[in-house]
Amino acid sequence: MSTATELITTFELQVSDITELSTSEELLILNRINQRVCAQRSWEFLKTSASGTLAGSGADGSYITIPADFSSFSENYLYTDNTVSAQNNAAPKVIFMGANYSPFFLVNYSDRRQYLGTTGYAFLDLANDKIVFTGTPELRTYDFDYIKTPPILTAGDTPPMPARFQDILVYGMAAEDSILQLSPKATSYANENRAMYEQYMLDMAYWNAQLQLN
Prior knowledge:
With 214 residues, the protein is α+β, with helices and mostly antiparallel strands. The chain contains 6 helices and 8 strands, in the order H-H-E-E-E-E-E-E-E-E-H-H-H-H. Helices cover 30% and strands 19% of the residues. Strands 1, 2, 3, 4, 5, 6, 7 and 8 form an 8-stranded mixed sheet that branches.
């Protein structure tokens, strides 16, 4: 796995060492590309889970404070065996509650009023960093899957994708408009750098699809 510093060194070779940029500026560009790549899909390497005990009760309602790196919910209520049909017509994203992992279905924020007072549902209140339950669950422990936002990379950190795909960040950096304005070599090879970036994206998307078993 390459560190951020090592990827920046590779990038400098790719564009003939842009001396106008400081190391911190290059790191900023690297992070911008890393965040962009990670936002393209629900990558398997960004899937994680959260568990704990509900906060709030009574007039305050029951809720979960979402993790600091929360990006979106991940599907967690399907079956790998595709002969098993969906349990209902709801989105396959749930909060599992209690020791027996009872599913509480997630509904859209804008639809929450139709479910108020009804146990078995929850919605994302993103403005307040909460997952709010429409009723008052008797079960108090929870577990759910989500897609995390990758952390900002520092010099010694490694990007989250597998090592064989990390050069996507180098080609993405080389194709940035701010780089093209500074580097004649980057400008000359702009189309090639963009093509390599897009090819890495396709390769990584294909690899990601192979990890999904249905």
